[in-house]
Amino acid sequence: MEEAQWLKSYEPRDYPAVGVTVDLVILTIRDKELHVLLIERGQPPFEGEWALPGGFVQENEDLHDAAARELQEETGLTQSDLDRVHLEQLQTFGKPGRDPRPLRVYSVAYLAFAPRLPEPVADTDAKNAAWIPLAATGEMKLAFDHEEILSAGVERARDKLEYSPLATKFVGPEFTISELRTVYEAVWGEQLHAANFHRKVLSVRHFVEETGRTTERGGERGGPRARLYRRGDATQLHPALLRPTAE
């Protein structure tokens, strides 16, 4: 009874108007280079400018469900495809004035990271959608505070490769250490010393395991055939495979 009386006295107009969106940093590797999915906005605010995909959370919709819905709408993935996508909540962004609309808009950002993502599909609110090389985004001005969100998402992805076996999703069931290294180089954005990387990978317990097989042809620079590995059962990398700049 007391709760019902409290609800009767509640007046929504006494409080500031607030909206909640989800924005996605969707990353993949294409042609050995890290790419991010961007959309060209088709309506105000920031019509015609590039931005991260996202949208308002629907009534009675969970945040994670909203992120998964936006991911499907922008990439054309099916529900079963989502199982191979690493999707995690990144950070909440809520600086006053980050959105010019007449309500306070908070964005809950998500990181989505997976191999072999299809060509994007622009939804009804977008003029265009495209995979953009991360290196090219440095010359772009993104809508809202999406440059800050993108930076946070890329840094999270780079951290994930230091402490988790996520990189093995971007190679085949059997792979060489050289193939694994190209994944790290694409995400970290720097060339790695082949011998040092090989040694560090094998020093991480249960990260990879030998298959007992080798490639049919010689390895890098025409050398001997390379050994083939498969993913081990580690869920966290111990010791961590730190970036050279972090060591």
Instruction: Label the CATH architecture of the largest domain.
Output: Alpha-Beta Complex
First-to-last CA distance:
61 Å
The class by helix and strand makeup works out as: alpha+beta
User: Rg to the nearest angstrom?
Assistant: 22 Å
In the predicted model, the low-confidence regions spanning at least 5 consecutive residues are none
Task: Tell me the major beta sheet.
Answer: 7 strands, mixed
- What sort of overall outline do the alpha carbons produce when their principal axes are compared? elongated
Overall pLDDT metric: 92
Q: Beta-strand level of the residues, as a percent range?
A: 25-35%
Quaternary organization: single chain
Say what the CATH topology of the largest domain is: Nucleoside Triphosphate Pyrophosphohydrolase
**What is the number of independent domains?**
2
Give an account of the 3D structure.
With 247 residues, this protein is of the alpha+beta class. The chain has 2 domains: 16-162, Nucleoside Triphosphate Pyrophosphohydrolase, CATH 3.90.79.10; 165-246, Orthogonal Bundle (Arc Repressor Mutant, subunit A), CATH 1.10.10.10. The chain is 25% helix and 29% strand. The chain is built from 5 helices and 9 strands, in the order αββββαβββαααββ. Strands 1, 2, 3, 4, 5, 6 and 7 form a 7-stranded mixed beta sheet that branches. The protein has a two-stranded antiparallel ribbon with strand order 8-9. The longest helix is centred in the middle third of the chain and has 18 residues, at 146-163. The protein is elongated. The model has no long low-confidence stretch (mean pLDDT 92).
